[in-house]
Design goal:
Number of domains: 1
Strand order of the largest sheet: 2-3-1-4
CATH class: Alpha Beta
CATH superfamily: P-loop containing nucleotide triphosphate hydrolases
Largest sheet: 4 strands, parallel
CATH architecture: 3-Layer(aba) Sandwich
Number of helices: 5
Length: 122
């Protein structure tokens, strides 16, 4: 059975770094960071966030079922999706679709997160 990981994180907390750690150290791992243009892999931003806040859990579940079909087709035995979207969108239905879901809680000093956000364009 494929191990599936998502992150619990705020923006600018190190999710891209975590993806790199997995990519370079976990054999047979398919890693994604905030997938937007990954054909067949639904994004968890935008409409997903709106659907969660509007209580449209059926739409979230459909999106996650599509994501699961995508993940199952990948060759690796481990899937990591690192982003801050989980807490904003799919938390409402994730366990229904991914019963063996594993979560990684990424924590970074809030002042460093704020500084990183303020200077992210530099």
């Amino acid at each position: 059975m494929k191990r599936i990981f998502f992150t619990l994180a705020s923006a600018r907390s190190g999710t891209l770094f975590l993806k790199s750690v997995f990519q370079n150290n976990v054999p047979d791992c398919d890693c994604r960071h905030e997938p937007f243009f990954d054909w067949g892999n639904p994004t968890l931003f935008g409409p997903a966030i709106y659907d969660a806040s509007a209580g449209r859990y059926d739409l979230i579940k459909k999106r996650l079922e599509k994501k699961l079909r995508y993940i199952e087709k990948l060759p690796g035995n481990v899937y990591l999706e690192s982003s801050h979207a989980f807490l904003k969108s799919i938390y409402v239905s994730a366990v229904d679709v991914f019963p063996q879901l594993e979560l990684i809680h990424v924590i970074r000093d809030p002042l460093k997160v704020a500084r990183s956000e303020a200077y992210r364009e530099d």
